[in-house]
Automatic annotation (TrEMBL):
Protein name, per record: Regulatory protein RecX
Domain RecX second three-helical intervals: 147-181
PANTHER family: REGULATORY PROTEIN RECX FAMILY PROTEIN
Record's keyword annotation contains Cytoplasm: yes
Keywords noted in UniProt: Cytoplasm
Pfam families given in the database record: RecX_HTH2
Gene Ontology CC: one annotated term: cytoplasm
HAMAP family: RecX (MF_01114)
Length: 246
């Protein structure tokens, strides 16, 4: 959640966005939803919650929150009333951030499993506060809604089934915040002796050999799929040799 003072909406912007006003107990807040055509590549557009004539301030104060948090605020004030100070609004919004982030995470995991780092990044892109994300992810980890060991095992077996080698799997796990070496049984339980070579050969056995730089292209292809350079060279040499004998 971001908090600041000052700032106003231009008349042109106001024409294209949804605006909601809350007032009561001497406090007045305005919610400025982002225009429908607003674009943000790194994070979802946020809603500005702007307070005027609020107890404890001599100027405008502002909080920026995700859309689902702003919508939850509109529902909550109907039952609990309008927060009368910046501190009260901040407390309300932080509680809503946690509940909305928890729901968002549950929705994500119901579609597929996530590594902890992946889940954190998705929540960050949705615009939730760092403290809300930390709280939600910690509880999800304790309850095993997020489990990096479970994720890694499923991920490894799925990628092996589509022909990925050890190198690529290690890189992709690392990108998700997981070290392959920390996975129980890696790599022996996943890659039987000789199996890596066999799978690499299956990928190139029927692959056409280019007349120009055919060997190098086959090596690069296998390395890009995560196979060891030595295995890639061995399979490429065998394929080029077979091609020349045909």
């Amino acid at each position: 959640m971001r908090y600041g003072t000052g700032g106003s909406q231009s008349s042109e912007t106001a024409k294209t966005q949804r605006i909601e006003r809350l007032s009561g107990s001497g406090a007045s807040w305005t919610l400025y939803f982002p225009p429908k055509d607003a674009v943000s590549f790194s994070r979802a557009p946020l809603v500005s919650v702007v307070g005027e004539d609020v107890v404890g301030t001599q100027s405008t104060c502002r909080f920026n929150v995700p859309k689902d948090v702003a919508k939850a605020l509109l529902k909550q004030v109907k039952e609990d009333g309008v927060p009368t100070s910046p501190h009260a609004m901040e407390t309300v919004l932080e509680g809503l951030q946690i509940s909305c982030a928890a729901k968002r995470l549950t929705d994500l995991v119901n579609r597929r499993d996530y590594a902890t780092k992946e889940a954190q990044e998705r929540l960050q892109r949705s615009g939730y506060s760092a403290s809300a994300i930390e709280d939600v992810v910690e509880r999800a980890t304790r309850g095993r809604l997020l489990d990096d060991d479970r994720f890694a095992e499923t991920f490894i077996r799925a990628k092996i089934s589509i022909g990925w080698g050890q190198g690529r799997i290690k890189r992709e796990l690392a990108r998700r915040g997981i070290s392959a070496e920390s996975v129980s049984g890696w790599p022996e339980e996943y890659f039987a002796q000789g199996e890596e070579l066999e799978r690499a050969w299956e990928l190139v056995a029927r692959k056409p050999v280019s007349e120009k730089n055919g060997y190098q292209k086959l090596v690069r292809f296998l390395v890009s799929r995560g196979f060891d350079y030595g295995i890639a060279r061995q399979c490429a040499s065998r394929r080029v040799e077979e091609e020349s004998e045909e």
